[in-house]
Amino acid sequence: MKYDVCIVGTGAGASGVAHTLVNAGKKVLMLERGGFLKEKDFSKDEVAYCKRDIITPKMEECYHTIEDKEEGKWVKTPTYVNESSFFNGNIVGGSSNVMSGYFHRMKPDDFRLKSRYGAIEGANVEDWVMNYDELEPYYEKVERLIGVSGEVTPYKHHEPRSTKDFPYPALEEHPITKLIDKSCKTLGYVPYKTPRAILSKPKEERNNCYYSNYCGSYPCISGAKGSARASLLQPALKTGNLTIITHAFVKKLVEKKSKVTEAIYIDTQTREKHSIKATLFIVAGQAVESSRLLLNSKSKNFPNGLANNSGQVGKNLLFSAGGVGSGQIDADVMNMKDLMIEGKFVNRSLCDWYFTDEMKGGVVDFLFEHANPISKAAKQRWDGNNLVWGKELQDRIFTKFTTKKQLNFEIFNDWLPTDNCFVSVDEKYKDIYDVPVANIRIGAHKHDLEVGEFLAKKAEKVLEEMGAKEVYSSVSSYPPANLQAGGCRFGNNPKSSVLNKYCQAHEVENLFVTDGSFMPTGGSVTYTWTIYANSFRVGDYIVKHQEKWFS
Amino acid sequence: MTRRVFILAAIGAGTAWSLLPQKAKTHITVKPFKVMAAVQEVLFPKGLQAPSALEFGATNYLLMVSTHSSFMKSDLNFLTFGADLFINEVPNFFKMSPDEKEEALRDFVDDNSKGENWVSLLLFYTLEALLSDPIYAGNRNESGWTWINHHTGQPQPKIKWADPV
Q: Please, what is the Cα angle at A148 between A143 and A149, to 5 degrees?
């Protein structure tokens, strides 16, 4: 059978376009590397979801190499050596299943960063080839279909909205928000109410949030979290136009006469090889794996990888720059009964310095330390460099859990695109299917650290004003593995970009890439909302111009 | 028979092996787990309210999870390697008084970076046993969660390893 469309991946970037095409009557096949787990299968099992490779490939099966600078030289280290995986949520719905759903739109000037601030030496900043107004209708569509809860907070950098309010009211808040708001007011900051991709009210077959206190890193049992699976794929399956094949690792796209003709995948349970034929092919396997697939899909016409005669595939990979900080809140700061309330959200951000006169800034999100007890207790076994055990350790753990809570902040600022952050493949490092794994060079621009430090100081002031103890922050150039974009930039020039404005490969007319790979810059926010919105946009483009491929 | 003697006897006699899947049994030798059980009791002793490692099932947990395919093989190898190294250095550890055991373990950590890494890893898995869902044979009767008044997320797992197959 030949499908109309074959999509590699089932996450946010894959599912917006899939949902649109399925509803336009196209027969769509999606290939997912992992399994299909649904609400009834999930639980709040810290060991399974947070401590082991259960919903990511086992390191023995597949890994990455991380290329970092050591003593002036770039050195590749396989991820199984330091046990730090760069895979995220390999199940139907992808990493959107396990996101926290802190949702921010990009701002109009994020689409024209080079025009606003000029070039930065050592960085490859480029303006986008679309503007905010072109994406706004799709940001709004995400609010409705994925479900975004919140309350619009006016502040000076707020992006224009085509609707007044969010379709779902704000989620219930923890009492500490009152203290945050008060402290921000004293400091002259505007506390921004963080929108969340979590339903505060039921929507069709999805229930509202039940405040489990175990949200981020876990799939959602009620369907409230706006995963691609719950919000788009499960409804799309009901049309009868969508087929999902699980445990399917796509190793190669086959090209003939500058068109993709088939996708070759391995069933990871049987190790058997299969082929899928389709008219259109869409790649959305998260940025690193999408670039890897194109680089490994070599042919006579594309000796350096599919759609890569420009040499741009894998280049200008983006993560999110920034860092984390924290302060201890105890009975001296607020009453214990209120402090120990569980499950309610903090949902406060600072966006006052998203743009400054001198530089692009970013966002600070406040949140309580995750409830996961194993992670919290394990940190207590170290007192500085000293290993602590016995009664001393027990006292530390008991105090940690029963007398205080840790309020954290996370800083998000632009990860500048540079020549030292990219995906490549290397025949020396292969997975168990004999396919070269992705090498990720993780060089960061020093400007990213300067911006992160600037924001950390602003955020620390809030914690200090609140009366928090042991206020601390750490800005790092090590990339967060779950926030990936770039690698297949869109642009008007086929020599300097992989995709055109509609995320169609310049060189291969029936190939699109619809995860975060297209982004030339990432904005200072988590990517998911933008990835969803762009995926819907590309879906509309394909439907509108379908006679180009489907005659 | 005290509970301590019981659990060590159980490991020796094979009762605890009933926790393991059949195919996993051949990969494990008992002696290092006896050593680890004795060390875990020093790392996490009976407190005024805290359950001891023996009481909450620290070693039973380790036996169960370390044979599952998701457990890092390098961690299992290092745990057993460290146990062998430790008991070779302190052959009479089982017969020592609590104070002597504490001192022997501290000396082992201070004298040897491998010693510190081993105790740190064993302590990590001891805490994992204390605070993981009881489905994995640790945190017996939710004694770990009860001790620190922790309310776990709902629903709790009905199957191990989130594997519906």
A: 140
